[in-house]
Specification:
Length: 616
């Protein structure tokens, strides 16, 4: 209900937030309804206006209202008397003019229902869901790898000319992102992203979080487009997108700014798939070009993008099976498959990091890892972060009893195969396409990571699309089990199921976000303390030793890496050296004899103190 008119004394600098605060959700909806009904009236009557001055006046006022609406995002414009009086008088004039040309009654209820259930309206609902879920995370600070990415774009490469050091030209820097990976992963798209964000927002972490949530939201919209076509239903398309937004396993991917590479790569994979679908339907060459560009762009953000062609080909072979008649239409596969060799060649020439350490496959353990990781990612997607300790325990015990694990895998495969055969015999008209698409999408999405010796939340992001399709297909089949007269009962069951699932997932997300908030407080406090202590002090070739550096808290990372990069923003010194030590004795031993060396220790709360060794 809100706190009452004029109860917010200070300028909120956002008229929509002011309306929500003063008159609540109901008042906000009522206020927007005025403009929606006004828009319906204009939409229905304007085509009948044949007088050019009247028509131009109406269009001009509508355009002005759009501009004022954008202005209201940044200022309390609707309540300003100099704007409000004129605005409402102009709206009245427009309605009066249109009334002269009105030829038939307007069915407001029917049109209002069409507006509220339209694709743009559903997209807005998803936007509200996305930011309502992740709103509290927008204040979280940078952690770990975030500082490494930021330093890469903040610490420009120096060129010595006539004895003076100057930054390398921006054009050459941007080109170098694509031509020289410097032994790191080949992710020029991610570097471009951080370059643009750093140029506009510097160390304003909120802007980066808003961007991450926005990309997450766009992925949900693409799922809406995709699922709407699969189920031929806006409602179930919305359900699929909604379930994708609330999955708690996405917490790390959205909360951690560095994980924008997963979000962006997934966005381009889904964009390529959605565009391909529309090209198949409309034969509009624009959608094919957009799809191809998206597919070739995806791996520039993360290696995950290399599976984009398989996503599209898998979808097309399921929905449009290979036959003699359809063989000619499959020529487009060649264009998509070119992405793989082109990407690998470019990556090779850029001297990028390849598979080693945690990012390598063990041929001996490959079968065990494949089945274990499939099970693990399904559990992570459905259960969220609480599943990881259980999975780790099962994996450790299973490694000691390989024969039992192999036997269990064989039994599970046989049971599933038998169940599918029996089901297909008894249910002749069952639509198995959504289930098959879900399975194929899941397996393709986890394919690059399926042979690794561990699992992580970020790798399940794109794979969750497949599981979401299967969950939505189950709800869709429940809906179809009921006759038309009992559809209300089916909706009730769906709402209860989705509500319970959402409550659980959001609870886990809130718990995870509290960990990331703690991590951000530690990193921001470290930067503040060092800036206060050394921001105005000139140190030559400083060497800092840190003891008990916090790696993570709960589900959130703190400084697995990036401590030196974070301190660089205080000292802006390329000669700064940051080292970790296991104990104070080790740190003092390594620092001995260096006049510029300092030793610091983190306490249990994450605060850092300088330790000075006294002479005995």
């Amino acid at each position: 209900m809100g706190s009452g008119y004029s109860s917010i004394n200070l300028a909120s600098d956002n008229n929509y937030l002011r309306i929500l605060g003063e008159v609540g959700a109901l008042g906000f909806a009522s206020y927007l309804l005025i403009f929606i009904v006004f828009g319906i009236y204009v939409y229905r009557v304007l085509p009948d206006v044949d007088q050019k001055p009247s028509r131009s006046f109406v269009i001009g006022v509508v355009a002005a209202l759009f501009g004022v609406g954008l202005n209201a995002v940044l200022i309390d414009v609707f309540e300003a008397s100099k704007v409000a009086f004129v605005m409402w008088m102009l709206i009245g004039c427009v309605l009066g003019i249109l009334h002269l040309y009105k030829k038939k009654p307007i069915e407001y209820i029917k049109d209002l229902k069409a507006v509220l259930l339209s694709f743009p309206a559903i997209s807005i609902y998803l936007l509200l869901v996305a930011f309502s879920i992740y709103w509290s995370s927008l204040v979280n600070y940078f952690v770990g790898d975030d500082f490494t990415w930021l330093r890469w774009v903040g610490d420009c490469k120096k060129i010595i000319t006539d004895g003076y050091a100057a930054c390398q030209p921006t054009k050459e820097t941007l080109m170098q992102y694509f031509t020289d990976a410097g032994g790191f992963f080949y992710r020029p798209g991610t570097k471009l992203y951080f370059f643009a964000m750093y140029s506009f927002f510097w160390l304003n972490s909120m802007a980066y979080h808003v961007a991450s949530v926005t990309v997450h939201y766009f992925n949900a919209v693409l799922i809406l487009l995709f699922a709407r076509k699969i189920f031929n239903s806006k409602f179930f398309g919305f359900i699929a997108a909604f379930l994708f937004l609330v999955l708690s396993v996405h917490g790390e991917t959205v909360f951690w700014i560095s994980s924008i590479n997963h979000l962006a790569a997934s966005f381009f994979v889904l964009l390529g798939l959605a565009s391909f679908m529309y090209w198949r339907e409309t034969k509009n060459i624009f959608f094919l070009i957009l799809s191809v560009v998206a597919v070739f762009t995806a791996p520039l953000f993360h290696e995950l993008g290399i599976i984009a062609p398989l996503f599209i080909i898998g979808y097309d072979l399921i929905t449009n099976p290979l036959t003699r008649k359809t063989l000619r239409s499959k020529w487009v596969y060649i264009i998509y498959l070119l992405q793989i060799p082109v990407y690998l060649l470019v990556r090779r020439s850029a001297d990028s990091h390849w598979m080693s350490g945690d990012y390598s496959y063990s041929l001996v353990n490959l079968p065990y890892n494949i089945f274990g990781n499939i099970f693990g990612y399904i559990g992570l997607i459905l259960v969220g972060t609480p599943f990881l300790p259980l999975y780790t325990s099962l994996r450790e015990s299973g490694s000691q009893q390989i024969m039992w694990v192999i036997g269990a895998i064989v039994v599970i495969i046989l049971v599933i195969a038998a169940g599918v055969l029996v089901f297909r015999k008894k249910v002749k008209k069952f639509n198995y396409y959504p289930y098959l698409l879900g399975i194929v999408f899941f397996l393709i999405a986890v394919f690059p990571f399926i042979g690794l010796g561990n699992i992580t939340y970020r790798y399940s992001y794109l794979a969750s699309v497949g599981i979401i399709l299967i969950l939505t297909a189950i709800l869709y089949n429940i809906y179809n089990l009921f006759p038309k007269k009992a559809k209300g009962a089916s909706y009730l069951i769906i709402f209860i199921a989705v509500g319970v699932f959402t409550s659980y997932q959001v609870t886990i997300l809130d718990r995870t976000n509290s960990d990331w908030q703690k991590a951000g407080k530690v990193t921001s406090q470290v930067m503040k303390d060092f800036n206060d202590s050394f921001g105005k002090v000139s140190l030559q070739n400083p060497v800092f030793y840190f003891v008990d550096t916090p790696i993570r808290t709960g589900e959130a990372w703190i400084f697995p890496v990036g401590l030196g990069d974070a301190l660089w923003f205080t000292f802006q010194d390329e000669n700064l050296t940051v080292k970790n030590a296991r104990t104070l004795d080790e740190a003092f031993s390594d620092a001995e004899g260096s006049a510029s060396a300092k030793v610091f220790i983190f306490d249990k709360s994450g605060r850092v103190d300088e330790i000075i060794k006294t002479l005995e």
